[in-house]
């Protein structure tokens, strides 16, 4: 069962969230509520609950390393991604080879979110996740052609052939998925 503030944030009830905020809320409940608002795309609630720059470095307690920016990217909430970037959010985790917001956007095929992350210099096109995959590799593996084509167009030619830990490349996955258009872009 969700705490009342978490439930209000999850459903986008900004007036109720403001009431709880006035009454005082602890850090954990506020962070969980903020995460729910981010995941469910409720920008007014996100704006209400984001208090300090330190909030931007919060990661989900499930050990995934995904924070607010990654959750917004994963769920395709472009308005929240842009808002968090405007507040100083960064895709760069303190942990090496961790899933970045750009990886999340690529995995789910959210091209507009990927564009925003790249445009705001908040993404590394060659960052590797725990499997050694770049965002392009993730997009090709998941057959997310739109975001894969966009990422390929932004990368240096030499970086298009980066291979994951399993030795597969973006080109391999494009061929495997029979994506002729993407194969042309990667050659």
UniProtKB/TrEMBL annotation:
<keyword id="KW-0040">ANK repeat</keyword>
<keyword id="KW-0677">Repeat</keyword>
<dbReference type="Pfam" id="PF12796">
    <property type="entry name" value="Ank_2"/>
</dbReference>
<feature type="repeat" description="ANK">
    <location>
        <begin position="97"/>
        <end position="122"/>
    </location>
</feature>
<dbReference type="InterPro" id="IPR002110">
    <property type="entry name" value="Ankyrin_rpt"/>
</dbReference>
<protein>
    <submittedName>
        <fullName>Ankyrin</fullName>
    </submittedName>
</protein>
<dbReference type="InterPro" id="IPR036770">
    <property type="entry name" value="Ankyrin_rpt-contain_sf"/>
</dbReference>
């Amino acid at each position: 069962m969700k705490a009342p503030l978490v439930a209000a944030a999850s459903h986008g009830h900004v007036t109720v969230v403001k009431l709880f905020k006035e009454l005082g809320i602890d850090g954990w409940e506020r962070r969980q509520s903020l995460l729910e608002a981010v995941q469910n795309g409720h920008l007014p609630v996100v704006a209400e609950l984001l208090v300090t720059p330190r909030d931007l470095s919060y990661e989900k307690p499930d050990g995934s390393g995904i924070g607010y920016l990654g959750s917004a990217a994963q769920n395709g909430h472009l308005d929240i991604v842009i808002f968090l970037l405007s507040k100083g959010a960064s895709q760069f985790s303190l942990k090496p080879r961790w899933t970045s917001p750009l990886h999340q956007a690529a995995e789910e095929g959210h091209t507009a979110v990927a564009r925003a992350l790249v445009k705001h210099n908040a993404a590394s096109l060659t960052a590797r996740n725990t499997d050694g995959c770049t965002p392009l590799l993730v997009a090709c593996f998941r057959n997310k052609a739109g975001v894969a084509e966009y990422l390929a167009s932004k990368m240096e030619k030499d970086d298009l052939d980066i291979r994951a830990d399993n030795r597969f490349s973006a080109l391999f996955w494009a061929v495997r998925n029979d994506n002729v258009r993407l194969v042309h872009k990667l050659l």
